[in-house]
Each structure stands twice: as structure tokens, then as C-alpha cells.
Amino acid sequence: MDLAQEYVRRYLVSQREAESRLADEIGKLEAVGHRIIDGGQTGQSSWMYTDWLTGEVIASGDDDPDDEVFEQLDPDGMFLHIDNVVRHPVNPDNPGIPHSLAEALRDWVDLLKTTDEDIAQFVGWSADDVAAAR
């Protein structure tokens, strides 16, 4: 098997494992009452925060974010931005290819324009298996 193909497979498996650990961590946080949010500045003065899981808009505005808005929405301080949830790094073992090539392969997999089908064809998996790992 080609070393580049093996590296991409390892990277996909590492991504799937990291996403699983993230989902577990979020589940634990939600179980104790935290609401995971996403968002922030969307323009020079506009902002929007959403529920990370559902995409529901929690608050938005066209001026500087107002701390009072969040105090009213989250009086108990239970909102937690997704950026503050610990993510585990995706660093698969390198099967002997140069570091720069491994980095280029990770970039290729992570590109939105790289299709699951392209990756599946390269590594010999089904497109569904690739989609589940990405």
C-alpha cells in the first residue's frame, strides 16, 4: 500500500476519534447544564451567537456586543463557546512520509472542495465511510 494513502487513512481515523471525543465532552458539559454556543463578530460592528447544536440564533446585533444581553440570556453563566471546549489534536502516526507531504495531505482532506468521493477513491474506502470520518 502507498504510504500517502495509509497516511490519509490514519488521518481520517484520527479525525473520527477526535470528533467522538468532542461529542463526549460536549455531552458531559450539557449534562451539567451548559449550553454550547458558537458565533461572534460577523462584520465590522455586527455579531451573532447561535446554539452550536441546533444553529438557533440566541442573540445578534449591529453594534458592539452588549454584555448585558448575555447577562439576561445567561444569568447563571452556563453558556460555553465551542472555542472553549477542549479539542483533541488530530495527529496520526506518520508512516514514513516527509512532514511537509503529510501536511499537504491533511490540507487536501480538509478542503471543502475535496469531495468524499475523491478521498474514497484515493484510500479505497466508501464515500460514506469518508464522510463519517470527516
What does this entry look like structurally?
- The protein has 134 residues and is an alpha+beta fold.
- It is built from five helices and four strands.
- It has helices spanning 3-31, 67-73, 99-110, 116-123, 127-133, and strands at residues 35-41, 47-51, 57-61, 79-81.
- Strands 3-2-1-4 form a four-stranded mixed beta sheet.
- The longest helix is centred in the N-terminal third of the chain and has 29 residues, at 3-31.
- The chain is elongated, with a radius of gyration of 19 Å.
- 10% of the residues are buried.
- The model has no long low-confidence stretch (mean pLDDT 90).
Evaluate the radius of gyration: 19 Å
Helix content range of the residues, please? Answer: 40-55%
Spatial order of the strands in the main sheet?
A: 3-2-1-4
**Most strands sheet:** 4 strands, mixed
**Overall residue-averaged pLDDT value:** 90
* Count of alpha and pi helical runs: 5
Strand content: 5-15%
What separation lies between the terminal Cα atoms? 22 Å
Query: H/E order of the elements?
Result: HEEEHEHHH
Strand element count: 4
Low-confidence stretches: none
Structural class: alpha+beta
Shape: elongated
Topology of helices and strands:
Blueprint: H1 3-31, E1 35-41, E2 47-51, E3 57-61, H2 67-73, E4 79-81, H3 99-110, H4 116-123, H5 127-133
Helix pairs in contact: 1-3, 4-5
Would you kindly provide a brief summary of this structure?
The protein has 134 residues and is of the alpha+beta class.
Q: Keyphrases for this structure?
A:
elongated; 134 residues
